[in-house]
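Revision sheet: structure tokens.
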Amino acid sequence: MADGPKRRLPIVGGGAPGAAPRRDATAAPEKRKLPVLQSSGDEEGEDRPPWHWIALGTVATFIAWLPLAGLVNTLLRRMLERAGDAEAPTRVRLAMVGLNVIAFALAGVAGGYLVGRFGGRAGRREAAASGAVVAALAWALALAEGAPAGALGWALLLVVMVAIGSAASYAGGSAGLRARSGGAPRPS
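Predicted:
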């Protein structure tokens, strides 16, 4: 390696290259700004095909449903502890079913709203489909647990869960479309 004259980098705002800055100089170095991409909020969901939003709505519904179901079942466990060791009274059983249905419906509305609000070309149909998928997955998990219900009972449970999940997600999708358009919902 050849030894040559060492080059000094110029100081920003200084006079001659390599010269020390003046003591009375108050000028700050010039700052470079990065370009900012300007985008409107309307085009955020346009990249994905509508069927992708079914999967995203399914995940969002599960994410909303898990804490709600945990809260509901914690409250129900306390109700059962107060009832004692005797068979759970009818009102506690109705509360178990009713509160879990409400938690599932609220989660469906939340997942459907996400699909309707940010779904690009996706609309109420995709929101309802995501609710139906969540219901079918939850039904399959319950079936895998092996609770006794019989074939007719399981079939009826599937129909009821899909109806509740689809209706709640459809309603959430409609609300999301209204929020996106700022007024009346658009047809899907």
